[in-house]
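Subject: for your reference before the review

Hello V.,

The reviewers asked for a structural picture of the protein, and I figured it would be easier to keep everything in one thread rather than splitting it across files. Below is the amino acid sequence we used in the manuscript, unchanged from the supplementary table.
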Amino acid sequence: MRIDNYLSATTLSKKTAATLDSLEKSDSGEIIILKNNTPKAILLSIDAYTAIKEEIEDLRLASLGLDRLSTFATNEAVSHQEMMKKFDA
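And here is what came back from the structure prediction:
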């Protein structure tokens, strides 16, 4: 983590607009907020937040798929052809 990704809570309160502008232009899209030289919060750009949410959803779906594969019973499966017949397609 680069030193320019850290910001004191006092500076944030005094320079909110400038901080938001720099956050948008930042490579990492995140700023760690310090209070009494201790990390207290992380400020994320919309792009960084969206990327994190999408990755979490991708991981959730992959986990769900792997779980379903582990309990999949091929002898109980319905073939594509059977489904097409059933729905007259």
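For the response letter, the relevant points are probably these. Helices lie at 9-14, 16-25, 46-70, 80-86. Residues 1-44 form one domain.

Happy to draft the paragraph if you're swamped.

O.
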